Amino acid sequence: MEAPLVLSTNMGHGAQMVIALLVGLGFGFVLERAGFGRADNITALFYGRDFRVMRVMFTAVVTGMVGVYGLDLVGVMPIGNIGLLPTYLGPAALGGALVGAGMVVGGYCPGTSLVATVSGKLDGLFYVAGLFLGTLAVTVSYDWLAGFVDSGAMGRVLLHEYLGVPSAVIVPLVAGFAVFSLWGAGRIEGLVRARLAGKEVSR
Description:
Elements: H1 4-9, H2 13-33, H3 39-43, H4 52-73, E1 87-88, H5 89-106, H6 110-118, H7 122-140, H8 142-149, E2 153-155, H9 159-163, H10 167-202
Antiparallel strand pairs: 1-2
Helix pairs in contact: 2-6, 4-10, 6-7
């Protein structure tokens, strides 16, 4: 499957590979600089101490969303060119819950575990090994899981299409939700840190 911009610009295969490599390197670099290569920075989110993970991810999601819909609006990259995978509601919900549980327990998601491994962290390497073992287990037992994996099929779903509203409505709403969430996260972070500081003083 070709990338949306490739379809819009008739980019050659060599250029595609170079851009993919640069984007991947840039993404990994940003994750490392943001502190995503350390498990304690990620798990701190779930304790309300540090919301840097949420800040980076929400900013990335909103920036990407505005960029994609903006390029569609000016006709550079039609949204129809984006190769979205079909949605399977039940399996997606279970998978999201398992990834979330894994982040709480291990401190990494699949992407950040690779960043940690490349950064030389042993816990990241063990996490990546677990990903390979889990993938192998699902592959081997796929025939047994097929009924569940294919359940709840919804096809290619975009949020504005699912809700039946124009994209010009849903984009500002999602962006506004992200801004409000980040403001709320900052308030929680301040309260938790003040509480922890008070406990340190009382000792």
